[in-house]
Design a protein that fits this description.
Elements lengths: L1 E14 L1 E5 L11 E11 L2 E3 L2 E4 L5 E7 L2 E12 L11 H4 L13 H8 L4 H15 L1 E2 L10 H7 L1 E2 L1 H14 L4 E7 L9 E8 L2 E5 L11 E6 L2 H4 L2 E4 L2 E13 L15
Parallel strand pairs: 8-9
Antiparallel strand pairs: 1-7, 1-15, 2-6, 2-14, 3-4, 3-7, 5-6, 10-11, 10-13, 11-12
Helix pairs in contact: 2-5, 3-5, 4-5
């Protein structure tokens, strides 16, 4: 499989600020390769060299200071082949069982037990994905940046990150380690950065996407963490950045049929 991804971001900075971007694809491992990659940040046309920091999951964070002016970020990549499966670290199986900022698994435990008691492994993933998909309506702009899984369930609507947060919270409440991955998603409509859940069952991390808006087999990982607090594509501190334009594109040379009853890893 070959996947081509692109992101273009335009913003105005009226006070100097420190930014951290997470828009680059995670390292692909020995079974795949970057046939092409471009990472470019500019202010008023001048190139800025970022400091790249890689976290424990391979998330590539680009940190730098931006002076006042017209800011642009551009990322392009072409990835050939299947990426190596995510490694399984013992600490992750502890960290991703705990409640987090946007995934209040402790609060949602009665709901999880009431709906899914007695289900395990792939049967549980299928049931949770189908239930969240049927309980929520996908409505762009319907959720606030501070909404977590509980608020999403009360509102009964949201976008991809809200679906993923609810899936993660329900799975953690049932003692299944679960986490969030931001991805490029060939086939997604409307096109944007996408968020999915990953659940640890049968000895590996598997994708759960209750939106069913893109084939899981063609997703390309960007960032991994407890929830959206760990995977935001842009964070800024100490100044003012006004986002004016965001374009995202992701295509694959073939889009597979996605059977939600099958286990799929981010590859």
């Amino acid at each position: 499989m070959q996947r081509s991804v692109f992101a273009n971001i335009d913003a105005t900075v009226d006070l100097g600020t420190t930014v951290i971007f997470s828009i680059a694809a995670a390292p692909v491992g020995p079974a795949a390769r970057f046939a092409h990659e471009l990472v470019e940040y500019r202010v008023d046309g001048r190139l800025i060299e970022p400091l790249e920091i890689t976290d424990a999951h391979g998330t590539r964070l680009h940190q730098f200071d931006v002076p006042p002016g017209r800011f642009t970020a551009r990322y392009e990549a072409v990835v050939d082949g299947e990426v190596a499966p995510a490694p399984v670290e013992p600490v992750d199986l502890i960290r991703y069982l705990r409640p987090s900022r946007y995934c209040e698994s402790d609060t949602l435990m009665p709901t999880a037990l009431g709906e899914f008691r007695g289900l395990f492994d792939r049967e549980l993933l299928e049931a949770v994905s189908s239930w969240v998909g049927s309980e929520l309506s996908y409505v762009p702009g319907s959720s606030a940046p501070t909404d977590g899984a509980v608020q999403t369930l009360l509102l009964r609507k949201g976008v991809c990150r809200d679906y993923a947060h609810l899936v993660i919270a329900l799975l953690r409440a049932l003692d299944v380690p679960a986490r969030l991955a931001s991805v490029y998603a060939p086939g997604l409509s409307p096109m944007d950065f996408h968020a999915v859940a990953e659940a640890f069952v049968e000895g590996a991390w598997h994708v759960v996407d209750a939106t069913t808006l893109a084939p899981r087999q063609s997703l390309l990982r960007i960032a991994t963490g407890r929830d959206a607090a760990d995977t935001a594509f842009l964070t800024n501190h100490g100044g003012n950045l006004i986002l004016e334009n965001l374009e995202v594109s992701a295509v694959a040379d073939s889009l597979p049929f996605d059977d939600i009853t099958k286990l799929v890893q981010l590859r």
